[in-house]
Structure formats: structure tokens, C-alpha cells
TrEMBL record:
The lineage of its organism: Bacteria, Pseudomonadati, Pseudomonadota, Alphaproteobacteria, Hyphomicrobiales. GO terms for cellular component: extracellular space. The keyword Signal applies. CDD domains: KAZAL_FS. Pfam families: Kazal_1, Kazal_2. Residues 1-26 form the signal peptide. PROSITE patterns: KAZAL_2. Residues 139-158 have a biased composition (Basic and acidic residues). It comes from the Bacteria. Residues 136-158 are annotated as: Disordered. This is Kazal-like domain-containing protein. Residues 36-87, 100-140, 163-202 form the Kazal-like domain. Keywords: Signal.
Amino acid sequence: MISISPFLCRMAGRIAILLAAGAALAACSVEVDEGGGGYRPRPRPQACTMEYLPVCGARDHDQQTFANACEARSSGYRVVGRGECRGGGRPDPYPGEGRACTREYAPVCGANGRDRQTFANACEARKSGYDVIGNGECQARRPDGDRPDWRDRDRDRGGQKVCTMEYRPVCGQRGRDIRTFGNACSADAEGYRVVSPGECRG
């Protein structure tokens, strides 16, 4: 009677697993593009996020807009630019136009010709037909080049000032009257000078 040691049984089991794995790998094939032509990506199955950051993708003479770069690449397209493809094939520099913007408050200064205006975010500026020329609020200047003065600019627009609902309290003062405002813009719109960040004390 032949006796097989437990060691040989364990080794035989491991060898069988390795052989099965080797057979599975041998069934896979890798395709390499060795052609001398231009870039021609091959579609690959790929899991992509649902994130919407549009890109313009190109393959041969075809251009198509994709929700994001992953979607373009997984469809076999090369990303040629950010934003949606335009009629001339170039990506749209303002992919957010015509779409709803977020309520994110990241102020930017926008320009449309000589007109300057502060917007809550870049999407809002572009949606209104303005080019973003800087981050933060626009700095209006007096004709003599002195400090910014919002009241002069607001008078030119009928005295009305539009403020966001952002809550970043400030303490404002007008004469002897001291009051807390939701933000600096609201204080300024009421004619108050901001004396300190945060709520007024005592």
C-alpha cells in the first residue's frame, strides 16, 4: 500500500491552483497597436464616475462631447479639450452656458466690454455673458485712481446693490447706530461701515 504524506497532498493542491490560474491567463490576449498611423485608442471596458465635467473627444474625423474624460477614453476617443465640442470641432470655452449654476459662493470679477461686475461664481458670470477677469470681488476705482468706492458704482446703477445670502456676520456702524449684518455686502448696501468681523458685542 502506498502512503502519500500530508505535505505532498498540500503541494499537489497548490500546483493544481497554479495550473488553473495559468490556463485562465493564457486565455486572455493583449492587442498592441503597432501601426504607423495616428493615435487610435481602442475602447476598453471601464467603470467611470457619473461626474459631469464635459470634454471634447476625437477619433479619426469624428468629434463628440462626453460627460467626462473617462467616458471619452472608454469609448475609444482621445480628449482634445475641456468643455463641449462646438460646431467647428473645438471645445466650448464656456461649457456651463445655458445650464443651471451651483449656489457655491466663490466670487469672481467679470467683464463685458468696459462693464465690470462681481458674480457669486464663474458659472454665473459666464451665464450672464461676462468673461472672468479675476477671483474675488471687482475693485471699483474712482476716476482719480484712489481707493475703491462701491457707493459711486451703486449710484450709477440706481442706488441698488444686490448681495448674496452668504452668512458671514459683520458688525456695522453708521453714526452712533451699531448693528450686526449677515455679510459685509448687506452692511454696505444699508450705508453702514464694517467695524469688525462677527456679530456686534454688547
